[in-house]
């Protein structure tokens, strides 16, 4: 039998601690739209994923493959520069492994960013949505299999996957900074094909405001590990069934890049103001 998850976490964590002494309290997953935050990390230590035991390698467009440790707004942080997606063919354990490692490094708060398609008619491309809740539409769950009770409970509570205090703090800062922000429900799918009109219509009908191909597995593991989560989506394209325009990953990245300075400023201020 292969190594237990706990042993793999300990090995990866031990390796990172040898490279960098810093004990981060905040973990950040720099998805599409938040890559620039990497340039704001002071006293940065860069560890390529390829060096870290059991880490996978990012293949998605716009996703680099480094773990970054350092400081933002006077807080010690660890950031993933590039994440792993189900559509790349990775297992859910591989996708969520870095969240486990962040927890083992001492992280208490996880900040997630992603690009998402807008289902809510009040949104427009380039808008920011603070995730208040999610629908797991991946058809699977990263916690399937034997549960290690030392990592978290068998049946984790999901009544508040996204931390209300962090949502309120983010909204308050957005208002002060003059950054347009929505609240909404994120539906997580596998991809890599974008959705059909019928699927968008269905997702909107069941209560989703935005759709994307990441985040949900990471958040489930973060909650299992007892982390507080803040999720921010960059709305890159509108998914209104009756007037759907073709979308491709270049368009998604172009809009996310335009929104990046605003999202970066918002998240930086949030980190500064986290108690
Ligand atoms: N669907 C799924 N994922 C996405 C989309 C979309 O329309 N836009 C950006 N990520």
Give a quick summary of the entry:
The chain is 31% helix and 24% strand. The protein has helices at residues 5-19, 92-105, 164-177, 197-205, 216-224, 249-273; strands at residues 26-30, 42-48, 66-72, 75-81, 109-118, 128-136, 181-188, 210-212, 228-238.
Walk me through the structure.
The protein has 275 residues and is an alpha/beta fold. It has one domain (5-273): 3-Layer(aba) Sandwich (Rossmann fold), CATH 3.40.50.1580. The protein contains 6 helices and 9 strands; from the N terminus they run H-E-E-E-E-H-E-E-H-E-H-E-H-E-H. The chain has helices at residues 5-19, 92-105, 164-177, 197-205, 216-224, 249-273; strands at residues 26-30, 42-48, 66-72, 75-81, 109-118, 128-136, 181-188, 210-212, 228-238. Strands 5-8-7-6-9 form a 5-stranded mixed beta barrel, surrounded by 4 helices. Helix 1 crosses helix 2 and helix 3 (164-177) crosses helix 6. The longest helix has 25 residues, at 249-273. The radius of gyration is 18 Å and the shape is globular. The termini are far apart. The structure holds hypoxanthine. Hypoxanthine (HPA) binds next to strand 5, strand 8 and strand 9.
Shape: globular
Helix-strand string: HEEEEHEEHEHEHEH
Instruction: State the low-pLDDT regions, or none.
Output: none
Count the beta strands.
9
> What Rg do the Cα atoms give?
18 Å
> What oligomeric state do these chains adopt?
single chain
What does the main sheet amount to?
5 strands, mixed, barrel
Number of helices: 6
End-to-end Cα distance: 43 Å
Overall pLDDT confidence? 94
Bound small-molecule species: hypoxanthine
